[in-house]
Design a protein that fits this description.
The chain is of the alpha+beta class and 150 residues long. The protein is built from four helices and six strands; from the N terminus they run H-H-H-E-E-H-E-E-E-E. 25% of the residues lie in helices and 40% in strands. A hairpin with a 4-residue loop joins strand 5 and strand 6.
Length: 150
Amino acid sequence: MKIKRDDRDVHFQYAKEIEEKLKNDTFAEWLGIELVEVGPGSAVAQMTISENMLNAHGTAHGAALFAIADFVFAVACNSYGKTSVGLSVNIGYLAACQSGDKITARAIEIKRNHRTSWYEVRVENDKELVAHVSALSYRKNEYFVGTEEG
């Protein structure tokens, strides 16, 4: 018989192991994304826009902003130690960023049930909101941390 676990209990019991696993994202590392905070259903990360992240107009490429937003979404939806994958992401680009801008992305859980979870992500520089994201994830049955189910 499977024992139903409380997601928040799993998060707090395995917080360090979960954070270490989610930090092991080589693409995010390559972009210079720093994971600042992981909470139950939430995450914060920062990145500095570099010259090689600029588009033809000399502003931050949308893919760079999407990458940090997608990273905090992934961390937030996996923060309970249960494997979750993205189903849908909708991003709105609201303002331009320049080379040297330090951007911060914050993901918060809006709603979670057994199989899906919804998140809002805000990406900001030191002046304003530069991107807004709505994201949906699918929650698999398995845990990636040391629980009886995983």
